[in-house]
Amino acid sequence: MNTMFVLVPIFIFLVTLLAVGFFARRKAKSVSGNFSSEYFIGSRSLGGFVFAMTFVATYSSVSSFVGGPGLAWERGFGWVYYATIQVVSVMMVMGVVGKKIAIIGRKTGAVTVVDIVRARYSSDALANISAVVVVVFFTAMMVAQYSGGANLFAAAADLDYRAGLAIFALVVVVYTAMGGYRGVALTDTICAVAMLLGMVVIGFAITRSGGGLAAIMEKIGEEPARLEIRSGGALSVPFLLSQWLLCGFCTLGLPHSLVRTLSYRDSRSLHRAMIYGTVVIGLMMVGMHLLGVLSRGVITELPPGKTTDAIMPTLIVQRLPTMLAGFAIIGTLAATMSTVSSLLIMASSAIIKDLWLRYRPKHKKEPDDRQLRRFSVLVTLIIGIVSMLIAVKPPSVIVWINLFAFGGLQSAFFWTFLLGLFWKKANATGALLAMVGGVVSYCLAMALKLPLGGSHQIVIGIGVAFVLFMAGSLLGKPNDEKTLRLFFPESF
After folding, report:
1. How many domains is the chain built from?
2. Which of 25, 366, 429, 438 satisfies CB 3.0 to 4.6 Å to 472 for a cystine?
3. CA distance 144 to 136
4. Mean pLDDT of all residues belonging to the chain
5. How far is CA 111 from CA 14, 51, 311, 492, in A?
């Protein structure tokens, strides 16, 4: 394969993202008003399509385009069945909690999910722990994204992994730091379109190389277990149910999805985004995992010394015409870069808005917008580079570290938001106990690999958090009337 022809479309794509980032930076300077609101949530101005695409691009990560399809290649159609729960994620987050979070955000001036936590529970301790949890688990997720993107970029450009990591990471860090949330939203939209086009190209590669769908299915059918929902017993019912919690219902507790709901323009934009987002994420999640299964008819064995994460990159590099390979790689890189940029901007907001601005010495002069802009860019760059350095020695299978971070965030925030937004008796004591107890129990269960009859350890994290939340809320100090009037005005 001619590396130069592969790199041309990739180079154009990366330059385009950088240009959009710098354009967004100039746009941000021209926007009057609060800098934090502009840099971290785009001044609450996103229309339906862009809002939907930034949500989809954030949720569709390297696991969706590399790790997940690789496991589908190994386990068959049962893994596609598992992935289908993700189709409803947009509708659930936007429809169940999105509008209420947006209303509260406008009333309180909140620009981060930690702002919402602080407003609901009036607890600095809970808010501080929330910010730390966000930074820690987001860093873990970024490491997984960097690893997948760097491996793919290195394979396409015939580079060493570290060189691929440096180029890939620096591009995404720079355009995120320069453009802020508005830049992230615009590049996410470009990335979402690129992901769809990349999926089409990969589908072409599979059917072309496998001699058509009939021939591919015939070859897959030689191993009947790959045609079954439970993959011949490899996927137990408890495992599937717990995974549907992890990647379905409990996505209501993912901060990087929840913060998106602070940024849309109006109710019309929200309703349109629910439709656009559900359609696109359905195509991506089901489509890419289905392509992973079909790739079994083209690649029958793992490359020597590789994990299932190598299936999609191998397919792209070895089975596609040179120029098309470049476009397919763009789609996969887009999934990775869009997630990293979203995680970066939110981790930066947790440090700057939720910790530094709140606890800086009172005697010091309040920073103006210019100083705040410079510091925000610096912090975003530092977080991105630190995550890149950790990714020098990447995890073995990307999808597992991504799901680990998902579970940690959900153990911390699922009940905190769901009960906090819809149950008047939810209080700071319950939320604090649930967050700490849920995260600690989940991490211990993961570290000890506790057997749960095949279930994922998210069951422990969510279960412990719920018990502690209920106990703390019933025994702790009731909420003050001001908070209740803010979050439950219909009761007064």
Report:
1. 1
2. 429
3. 13
4. 84
5. 29, 16, 40, 27
d(CA 152, CA 26): 32
Residue 224: burial class (beta carbons within 10 Å; 0-12, 13-18, 19+): exposed
Q: Residues 6 or more apart from 265 whose CB is under 8 A from it? A: 44, 45, 46, 47, 51
- What is the average per-residue pLDDT within 401-429? 91
pLDDT band at residue 274 using 50, 70 and 90 as cut-offs: very high
- Region 326-344: mean pLDDT is 80
Lowest mean pLDDT among 70-84, 152-166, 328-342, 418-432: 152-166
* 462 domain-assigned: no
Which pLDDT does position 17 carry in this prediction?
Answer: 86
Q: Which stretches of 391-491 are DSSP H helices? A: 398-422, 428-448, 458-475, 481-487
Question: Is residue 422 one of the residues assigned to a domain?
Answer: no
Please state, in angstroms and rounded to a whole number, the distance separating the CA atoms of residues 40 and 383: 15
**Helix ranges, 210-310 (H):** 213-220, 237-247, 255-258, 267-294
In angstroms, the CA 29 to CA 304 distance is 51
Dihedral sign for Cα 93, 254, 344, 100, please.
Answer: positive
Residue 111: DSSP 8-state = -
Measured between alpha carbons, how far is 447 from 245 in angstroms, rounded to an integer?
20
User: Region 245-250: what's the mean pLDDT?
Assistant: 83
Give the number of other Cβ atoms within 10 Å of residue 363's Cβ: 5
456 within a domain of the structure (yes/no): no
Q: How many Cα atoms are found within 13 Å in the side-chain-facing hemisphere of 216? A: 23
Kindly report the number of other CB atoms within 10 A of residue 317's CB atom. Answer: 20
Whether 32 shows a pLDDT value over 60: the answer reads no
Give the pLDDT of residue 30. Answer: 61
Do the domain assignments include residue 140?
Answer: yes
DSSP per-residue codes, 137-167:
HHHHHHHHHHHHHHHHHHHHHT--HHHHHHH
What's the CA gap between 260 and 137, in Å, rounded?
18
Backbone angles phi, psi at 364, to 5 degrees: -80, 150
CATH of residue 229's domain is: 1.20.1730.10
Measured distance CA(277)–CA(196) in Å, rounded: 13
Q: Which two tokens stand for residue 401?
A: 């570290």
Question: Alpha-carbon distance 465 to 438, whole Å?
Answer: 4
Q: pLDDT tens, 120-154?
A: 999 999 999 999 999 888 888 888 778 777 777 77
Count of H-run helices and E-run strands, the chain: 23, 0
Q: Are 177 and 381 in contact (CB under 8 A)?
A: yes
Render 172-226 in DSSP notation, one character per residue.
Answer: HHHHHHHHHHHHHHHHHHHHHHHHHHHHHHHHHHHHHHTTSHHHHHHHHTTSGGG
Residue ranges making up the domain that contains 203: 3-398
Mean pLDDT of 453-471: 92
